[in-house]
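Hi C.,

You asked whether I'd gotten around to modeling the 283-residue construct. I have! Everything is below, sequence then structure, no commentary in between.
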Amino acid sequence: MNYRHAFHAGNFTEVLKHMALCELLRLLTAKDKKLFVLDTHAGAGGYDLESDQAARTKEADAGILRLMAAPRAGMPAAVARYLAAVAAYDRKFGRSAGPLRHYPGSPRLVRAGLRPGDRFVACELHAEDALALKREFAGDRGVEVRQADGYQALKALMPPVERRGLVLLDPPFEAADEFDRLARALKQALRRFATGCYAVWYPIKDEAAATAFKETLAGVKALILELRLRAAPEGKLAACGLAVINPPWTFEEAMVEALPWVGSALDAGAMLTSRSSASSPTA
């Protein structure tokens, strides 16, 4: 499959990934110690939902736009914080009313969640997206943008000098052997930096391949979050997962509350599996 962020900005996979990312950042920055964040496949940084790419797929309609239109009564705190971060990014463009137009990619959400003294490296191999990412953070000394292979950067930067880190792995899955490459890179990173927190996104198109990847996580503490749309256009990605390795304290509790709510709002089945407890399906 081909997963260029601009075509899928704000879709249901982004909702899952970014809601969890915002909560991870909140918890990891609660400690008074410096944090290192690496985004291995960062994309362009931010996206216009009225751009040609986003308008062609309209995937945000069944993702972030649907979530923002959901009733706020009973909304879990983690979801509310994520939506607040999305709205704050949109307001940077002078918007105070009307439907959401500008959606923050993971680099923008990371940057908004970090403190002075934290370190952030964003990598993007695709030349056009890397240039857009550099423009997005031009003059911002809090972000180091690299046009680089994220897997190579992961190998080079682990372990970080801060000894506390969050790594987001969100590969495009353009290569047929992407799951194998991802598993190898993750294994090497854990060997170098076993205590780091890793958030690993993956598509579920080939059930066997996704299951085999999850089996490579045996022996590590991991929380696996999955969403499966009940109604999706034929040929479109309808299911995805996020494996969070070494999640911070209370993250699982937040996801146990938030994931079913998000699934209900997006008309999706939700599954949370923890290595430290039994698998628990949610509607």
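If it helps when you're writing up: Residues 277-283 have pLDDT under 50 and may be disordered.

Thanks,
B.
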